[in-house]
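Bit of a strange request maybe. I'm writing a small parser for structure token strings and I need a real example to test against, not something I typed by hand. Could someone generate the tokens for this chain?
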Amino acid sequence: MTRRQFVVAAAAAPMLAAAPPRRTSMGFTSDSWAMERWSSPKEILQVHRLLELAAQVGGGGAHGGLVDISFEYARKVREMKERLGMYVEIQTFLPRLGEDPAVFEHAVRVSKEAGATSLRVVCLLGRRYEMFNTYDEWKTAVAGFHKQIATAIPIVEKHKMPLGVETHKDWTVDEHLALLKQYDSEFFGVTLDTGNNMSLLDDQHEVVDKLAPYTFNVHLKDMGVEEYPEGFLLSEVPLGEGMLDMKRIVNTIRKAKPKINFSLEMITRDPLQIPCLTDKYWATFPDRPGIYLARALSMVRANKPRKPLPRITGLTPEGRARLEADLIERSIIYARDQLGLV
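Reply from user aminoacidic:
Good idea to test on real output. This should exercise your parser:
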């Protein structure tokens, strides 16, 4: 099966008439089906398609995107999610600099019409340590983020739509916490990714402890690590098979936010390189003490992977699809049997 054939087959999949048996209350982000998402228009997996995929494996909801931002499409999504008995959360974008705020407001209104309970945005579409060469470049980007956030907050407050900024390899946990306290809005919070801040040398359990009270939606993942010459490799692995204490993480978030949805983000890809032993990595962290590096490398050395980290290089499309399905299945079983996500 070629990549194009995979996309055509996925697009032609029949709409579900009813949900297969529910196996877990956990839902899914688009990246759990990265093969299809990255082959989709604008690399956005439409939320109705994600609802179908989640329902097929017995999941509880969809944390997906919008390409069609019409109210007609939104009503179809709402009908589908209500028929399947699932939750919907929408990934969208902060108001772009220089853009009419009405564009963002329309996305908020369409998401609400679709039955979304919250929104997710990111400040940075890439990774801080890869995108910037100097601290001044990072500070310029931060000034733009603040303008975008200041534009978005009155709109989500007006429509009473919780807006979570993802922990997305940009803000350290303390920077993110300061951001939340600065704006101090009940509708401005966090999309808590349970693994991403490891790339910034944050202790991931500390990230969860500090940000759980502000969390609106969750990208649930476990992580595997491995040394390489310039730092360490970081990879999503099936829940329960990595180095994170998933029970502690889920219980901490549930205690702070009892009604929160957990969406699996099991990204099937090659491990990411975290080049924390290079000068460029540290360009945007001029005041960060060396204890963060020492702690991170000690963590990596103490948590050698029990199994080889997942990799897709060299796999056929069929082989990649089988691996993706297997990693999702193992995560569902652990979420249901060990995390109480039923």
